[in-house]
Design a protein that fits this description.
By secondary structure, this protein is an alpha+beta fold. It is built from 4 helices and 13 strands.
């Protein structure tokens, strides 16, 4: 049996809002920072290559994402978290995100997995505002009850999480190739007709 210590997210992490922007992102191809938007985050991970560049606006200094952070989206039709597993260079999370900086006892990969798990999702859908468009407030996020295994067990757990993620990426690639094969067969069949 796995022993887990239960705590609230706010007791294990620092939580901050994404970089405040009003309206459209003021993109600048020569900007000094990048901004992480919803389109840049997929279940497979964060697409660091196509981020929009901009220059900081206003007086607030942006918080730049660090390896070990978790980006959390609780607005819209989907609630999800994604761990930052590489060290980005001057990238701020957009205003639709909260950035969770877990302490050393809670690895980002585990925290993101837990938020995306059925236990995390049930908590958010029960406590968030909105009906068809959900809105998870900072208070709801901070009060997420989280079960944290021992350090040894959480490291084993992360190995399983990474193995499953790798398997899902390979399966996704196979699905795409099968779809391309079917489209190729149909296209060739139509040309021959």
């Amino acid at each position: 049996m796995l022993y887990c210590n239960e705590n609230l997210l706010k007791n294990t992490s620092t939580i901050q809002a994404g970089y405040a922007l009003r309206g459209k992102i003021p993109e600048d191809p020569h900007g000094s920072m990048a901004i992480l938007q919803m389109k840049d985050v997929q279940p497979e991970g964060i697409n660091w290559d196509d981020l929009s560049l901009m220059n900081p606006i206003g007086k607030r200094t942006p918080y730049f994402l660090q390896k070990g952070d978790v980006v959390f989206s609780g607005r819209g039709t989907k609630i999800f978290a994604q761990a930052v597993t590489s060290r980005p260079d001057k990238v701020a999370a957009g205003p639709q995100y909260f950035v969770i900086c877990p302490n050393k006892d809670v690895p980002a990969e585990y925290l993101a997995w837990y938020i995306n798990s059925s236990a995390g999702q049930k908590y958010f859908w029960t406590n968030a505002g909105g009906t068809s468009i959900i809105n998870v407030t900072r208070e709801v996020l901070e009060n997420l009850p989280i079960r944290i295994p021992s350090k040894r067990d959480v490291n084993i757990f992360i190995k399983y999480i990474n193995a499953i993620d790798e398997e899902n990426k390979k399966f996704s690639t196979i699905q795409i190739k099968r779809q391309q094969l079917l489209e190729s067969i149909i296209s060739e069949g139509m040309e021959g007709a």
